[in-house]
């Protein structure tokens, strides 16, 4: 059975060109970039080239890029780093209700240590209103964090307007761009972003490497102490193969983004229209147009997300669900609840996320296989059989 991967928002395969670029840095080119001899200079050069490649993707200066172990670390560094470095300036953070747990749990951590956190709501599409952000900012607000696009429902936020509202009040603006870096054009200058998180494994690079963009002049503490690497902001010997891979992936993504987005959006729309037409009582989650080109999130009434995923998996099709049973909790997704879905609908959602290896034949197969799965599960569902 040919397996079909439609979970690119969870992670992407490493592009073979990226893996090739990384390969020598596991074996022949192994020097420590901090060493002054030739072995070290060779890997130092590779790390700095990657820094330029990543910076170019978001129109930053190479010096403003700090490599991290991924998106989670970058989000942690942004929130904790700003909170600790600006203790004298303020004690208040603003986050949106649909942030990734890497942001929300950091905010919670800081709250337990005495900071105040305001959570800005979203509308039924998952959009944050810049006016709500402006209203939430107080004199003591040090940081506002709103993601560029949501990982579950794909909604793209009006980042430029939000950043403008934040800057007008003198706070720092952080955006989690883990789902957008390499997928949407980003210009940190034009958008007015002070801090931005990105992760290589979401853009066909390796896992375990990401970056935090830190606008020059932004006050934040170091994340790892005990080494002078990354301009003193993150001690520890650099993950050279990972960083080289991130750089190569960023360069490829920059060049391929536009044509790839058009191709993937067409396939996604075909899947959306086909599923919504074939499955009665199904609905789209997220914004109808302001959404990631590869994201489709739908709620299907009277069936559990988990059972749909398992049935799809038996057909070799990998997707994901907003119901969090898969992550070991019975709570439905905070994102689906934030857009106003009741618990039972939030439990019945499926996310298909497409990518650069998705083909039309794969979409046709999902369109043929999934509606009968739903029909079968509904026949077994007491909820479906009790409806009048
Ligand atoms: N932020 C968002 C929006 C994400 O989607 C993810 C991963 O799914 C992360 C942060 C965490 O990134 P990483 O897996 O690189 O730690």
TrEMBL record:
Instruction: Quote the PROSITE patterns the UniProt record gives.
Output: AA_TRANSFER_CLASS_5 (PS00595)
Q: Where are the N6-(pyridoxal phosphate)lysine residues found in this chain?
A: 202
Which keywords are on file for this protein?
A: 2Fe-2S, Cytoplasm, Iron, Iron-sulfur, Metal-binding, Pyridoxal phosphate, Transferase
Q: Which SUPFAM superfamilies match?
A: PLP-dependent transferases (SSF53383)
Active-site feature positions = 325 (cysteine persulfide intermediate)
Q: Name one GO molecular function term.
A: metal ion binding
Reaction catalysed by this enzyme? (sulfur carrier)-H + L-cysteine = (sulfur carrier)-SH + L-alanine
**Where is pyridoxal 5'-phosphate bound in this sequence?**
71-72, 151, 179, 199-201, 237
- Write out the annotated subcellular location: Cytoplasm
Similarity remark:
Belongs to the class-V pyridoxal-phosphate-dependent aminotransferase family. NifS/IscS subfamily.
Please identify the protein, giving its name as recorded.
Cysteine desulfurase IscS
Q: Which organism is it from?
A: candidate division WOR-1 bacterium RIFOXYC12_FULL_54_18
Q: Which gene encodes it?
A: iscS
